[in-house]
Hints:
Helix 1 packs across helix 4 and helix 3 crosses helix 4. Helix 8 links the parallel strand 4 and strand 5. The chain is α/β, with parallel strands linked by helices and 247 residues long. Helix content is 41%, strand content 10%.
Amino acid sequence: MSYLEGVYWDLDGTVANTEIEAHLPAFNKSFAELGLDWHWDVKTYINLLRINGGKNRIEFYSKYKNLNLSEDFIRSIHFEKQKFYLNLIKEGAVKLKTGVKRLIEELNKRNIRQFIVTSSSKIQVNLLVEILFKGVNPFEFFIASEDVEMVKPDPTPYLKARDLSGIKESNSIVFEDSIPGLKSSLSARMPTICVKSNIPTDFNNLPIQCLIDTLGDEKTHTNILIGPDMRDKFITYEYLINFLNNL
């Protein structure tokens, strides 16, 4: 029988829906601030989310627009975007997704170690965790974009997190919401539960082990789309153990 030692949480779209709520308006504000006549609507931004990492998205879009922006200018855009994003977080634009706080607290009571593995920058992660968890950090460590040479969908972020934690893959669970994130965790051979975000995503071509619509709570119950059936109304420690033992 498998047992659970560590849970690795993606941040954007998994712990909190941040893309449409904060990242997108921050990008558009940065473009206006630096005199670019760009404005990403929701549809455009969702398509750009296939490119992981903010600077990578800016660079990709500049080439699409046949603009040869310098690396320094791309960094400037991203720096301005980050400032606007942090202000939006401070203003309360982002909330925890349903069931996240409940499950994190349950896992902590059972002494399950928890970590964040994200393509966001450290300053974004630190502020978002501070705001959302009201100054009480439930995570042992963060792996952010500055910590790895290759971000998701490369497996490096999860391989580094695994090595730092010292926990075997068979005693681990990853929570992810995106195709790049899933490719990263599955390539690292980490058992993964995919939690849908508010970004429409087609997961049909991925070997998904478990897909749910929400972690759930007493008011909003979980629907298992792929994976083991559950006895409770929402995702619990017991379900995670059952998931590991059904792989």
